Amino acid sequence: MQGYAIAFNKPYGVLPCFTDRDGRATLADFISLPGVYAAGRLDRDSEGLLILTSDGALVHRITDPRHRLPKVYLAQVERIPDELALATLERGVVLSGRKTRPARVQVLAEEPAVPERPTPIRFRKTVPTAWLEITIHEGRNRQVRRMTAAVGHPTLRLIRIAIGPIKLGDLKPGQWRVLTEEEIRAFGRLTDGRPVTRREVRSKGIRTQGS
Fold first, then answer.
1. pTM for this model (two decimals)
2. Which of 48, 89, 193, 206 keeps 20 to 30 A from 120, CA to CA?
């Protein structure tokens, strides 16, 4: 099998790698496919969509910042952001001396239907929280957390729900599914207008975990 890829719902507390000398939970506790590795990062304390693949061309499509691939997150933040904070996030904030690219940000009217986290967020009765949907087009280190903190609203919980054309959907934490060839080709249309052609995406013989 060559060039296959999967969408994985990474649980909270799982490292986005396959080995850890300290014995912490890793991708190896959920995925046993040969030759795949994560295309991009998703920190240990963050949750949600992670794409793993054996195809270097696809990794490039997903991770190269020149492609400006949209990544969508649900962020639970401290306090209710006002219009100024939202506008600042959308225009871009300066992180380590460099301004982030424009983002799309909206406050959700209702709390999203997300699974309970094994370790609850820190909760203070006097401090309300809000859920934001944030779309960014780059992937700097802990970017969303640093952005919301910069405008005075630290992120308490972060869930990635989409990377380009791939959505988290109804995958439960710890489950994965194989991406279709059409989904792989969609990455090309979103980046430079061409389908991924370096390798044929094959999913024959791979079954979705947890189904």
1. 0.88
2. 89
